[in-house]
UniProtKB/TrEMBL annotation:
It comes from Oceanisphaera marina. This is Glycine--tRNA ligase beta subunit. Its EC number is 6.1.1.14. Belongs to the class-II aminoacyl-tRNA synthetase family. InterPro entries: DALR_anticod-bd (IPR008909), Gly-tRNA-synth_bsu (IPR015944), Gly-tRNA-synth_heterodimer (IPR006194). It comes from the Bacteria.
Length: 689
């Protein structure tokens, strides 16, 4: 079977840069799935993407599907013919559906009888016949959040489509997709190279675009060129580039022919906090900042242009002129904001709404202050500093700098607090109060910061749940899931011995009579415990281990963490599966019993050696386990409990639990209840698979 390489390219208007990679990968994945489903053999699938094109290249694609035979079983022979041996209607209908006469049917004998059978030869369809529909299906399943129409067309896509090319080797495949006919025409760079070119073969795609069209269609190659070029340019300037991955991806998605250039700005702007300067360079202008070896921002930035200029100095000068007013704005805002102490802005927060039913941001700040102090005291940290940090936590929201550069909130609060002479722990807490901002983000570095960060997140959770606005589906306007997970991460990873119900109740009390949902406390606790499952699954823990611990509803996050780790280790022990099964059996027995089980085992009622041995071992273990449970040493406790395996196995092999004698039966149930309760001090291991 002959093989050829296949290319499809869709030429469009500028695609959304932050979605370019996902679009390219999805196009390739979707087409690969189509090929697999159609059983059309191929070697590899590659994706290419540039600002104005999406392409997929398939190597060693078979010319056609393989031929195959399909066995179609008909009615049983005794039902296929009447008493005179003539075909019945069932047999004739089946044969007609297969395009044969009943006399042409074969016979299939099995141990259950004999049936009519027809083996049909199915000829594989040619790739040229299949590919256009496959491409259309692959494009229809792209992750497009909002499609658009253009001109007078009813067709929708993420951006207007201008060209379509489907080449199998050198053969152009006729097709009309998204209102565009397939042709050999590709569009080159807007300002360099040929504006259009004709592609003669699928294998010449990248080379033709690069040499004739001045377009590098390979996303990864462009990214490498930019990354290496920016790093080299920074080194040449005596510094180190901030090669932020998100920015690198976005810049790669914005250019077809990357050219790396270096520019500078005045040293006087370095008096402004680096975060504000970096925000405008990266966020607004897509520039790469440069730092010296000590980590200080340098008056240099690196940018990527989409054109080769005969006079690069003109482009450099133009970019310097563009960024200068933005840096000047930052300098003005910084100087102006420092004329008033941060604390003086509390009154302005009265006019900033947190939530209509929950009041102003000033009220939130006062609640955060009180809750921060409460949490700090529980941590053994400085309560007064935590309260001060909580009170000032939102003051920078009404500064000119944060109003203009919103991503600098918290950071500017830290700088202004330092300028005002606030304690360094207080100033640092203003910056770290929003951490962790996202999955994998750093946690607050000190206890005061952690107290304020927890207070902020808990205040939001309690307030929004308290007015009944719980997250539904993917709608979470107050980012409550992120707040809950952030709070849990702080408590667990920093090892704070904090209890969620106590924190939730304290936060609820600070709202006074503003809250209307009487079930809020329970709902918040359930919501926060629910975050554990996804988080610990991401960490690699098995679902049944997590569920075994969640069944006990431990409300101290650090305690939950200790239990999960201990149960995860326990299940690696040889005795774990037998003890898990025994616990499940015990749980079922106790669940079916309708009555009161004695709290203590009566030694006088123990008859069989097996129950005496188990009772003695449980009594001995209970004493040894008490201090282990008190110290949350669950690993050691489960190792001790693992020694019960033989005694438990012997008990179930030799003892009739549900004895006819009431006293004997109750005593044995009490013994099993004692066994199960020891394990339940840690987790419900009966849930382990």
């Amino acid at each position: 079977m002959s093989e050829q390489n296949f290319l499809v390219e869709l030429g469009t208007e500028e695609l959304p840069p932050k979605a370019l990679r996902s679009l390219g990968q999805a196009f390739a994945d979707n087409l690969e799935q189509e090929l697999t489903n159609a059983e059309l053999p191929f070697a590899e699938v590659h994706w290419y993407a540039a600002p104005r094109r999406l392409a997929v290249y398939v190597t060693a694609l078979a010319a056609a599907q393989p031929d195959k035979q399909l066995e179609k079983r008909g009615p049983a022979v005794q039902a296929a013919f009447d008493a005179d041996g003539n075909p019945t209607k069932a047999a004739m209908g089946w044969a007609r559906g297969n395009g044969i006469d009943v006399s042409e049917a074969g016979r299939l004998k099995t141990d259950k009888g004999e049936w009519l059978v027809h083996v049909a030869d199915i000829k594989g369809k040619a790739a040229t016949e299949l590919l256009p529909a496959m491409v259309e299906q692959a494009l229809s399943r792209l992750p497009i959040p909002k499609a658009m129409r253009w001109g007078d067309k009813s067709i929708q896509f993420i951006r207007p489509v201008h060209t379509l090319t489907l080449l199998l080797g050198e053969q152009l495949l006729p097709a009309t997709i998204l209102g565009v006919n397939s042709s050999r025409t590709l569009r080159g760079h807007r300002f360099m190279g040929a504006p259009e070119l004709e592609l003669d073969h699928a294998d010449h795609y990248l080379q033709a675009l690069e040499n004739t069209g001045k377009v590098l269609a390979d996303f990864e190659r462009r990214k490498t060129i930019i990354k290496d070029g920016v790093a080299a340019a920074a080194a040449a300037a005596g510094g180190i580039a901030d090669l932020d991955e998100d920015l690198l991806e976005e810049v790669t998605s914005l250019v077809e022919w990357p050219v790396v250039l270096t520019a500078n700005f005045e040293n006087t702007f370095l008096e402004v906090p680096a975060e504000a300067l970096v925000y405008t360079m990266k966020g607004d202008q897509k520039y790469f900042p440069v730092y010296d070896a000590a980590g200080n921002l340098m008056p240099t930035f690196i940018f990527v242009t989409n054109i080769e200029s005969k006079d690069p100095s003109q482009i450099i000068s133009g970019n310097e002129k563009v960024v200068r007013p933005r840096l000047a704005d930052a300098q003005f805002f910084f100087d102006n904001d420092r004329k008033a102490p941060l604390a003086s802005r509390l009154e302005q927060l009265d006019s900033v709404l947190f939530q209509k039913q929950l009041g102003s941001v000033r009220e939130k700040s006062e609640r955060i202050s009180a809750l921060s102090g409460f949490i700090a005291a529980a941590m053994g940290a400085d309560q007064a500093k935590a309260e001060r940090a909580g009170l000032l936590s939102k003051c920078d929201l009404v500064t000119d700098m944060v109003f203009e550069f919103t991503d600098t909130q918290g950071v500017m609060g830290m700088h202004y607090a330092r300028h005002d002479g606030e304690d360094e722990a207080v100033a640092l807490a203003l910056k770290e109060q929003y951490q962790p901002r996202f999955s994998g983000d750093e946690l607050p570095s000190q206890d005061i910061s952690a107290a304020v960060a927890l207070a902020d997140k808990l205040d939001t959770l309690v307030g929004i749940f308290g007015i009944g606005q719980t997250p539904k589906g993917d709608k979470d306007p107050f980012a409550l899931r992120r707040a809950a997970l952030g709070a849990l991460r702080i408590i667990v990873e920093k090892g704070y011995n904090l209890d969620l119900p106590i924190l939730i109740e304290q936060a609820r009390a600070l709202y006074g009579d503003k809250l209307s949902n009487a079930k809020a406390a329970d709902e918040i606790l359930d919501f926060m415990l629910g975050r554990f499952r996804a988080w610990y699954q991401d960490l690699g823990y098995d679902v049944d281990v997590i569920q075994a611990v969640l069944a006990r509803r431990p409300t101290r996050p650090a305690d939950f963490d200790a239990r999960v780790k201990a149960v995860s280790q326990f299940r690696k022990l040889e005795a774990s599966s037998a003890l898990a099964a025994a616990n499940k059996r015990v749980g079922n027995i106790l669940a079916k019993f309708d009555g009161e089980i004695p709290a203590q085992v009566n030694p006088a009622l123990l008859q069989d050696d097996a129950e005496k041995a188990l009772a003695g071992q449980l009594s001995e273990l209970s004493e040894r386990l008490t201090p282990l449970f008190a110290n949350a040493d669950y690993n050691s406790a489960l190792n001790e409990l693992a020694t019960l395996r033989e005694s438990v196995d012997n008990f179930f092999d030799q003892v009739m639990v549900m004895a006819e004698d009431d006293a004997l039966r109750l005593n044995r149930l009490s013994l099993l209840n004692q066994l199960r309760n020891l394990f339940l001090q840690i987790a419900d291991i009966s849930l382990l698979q």
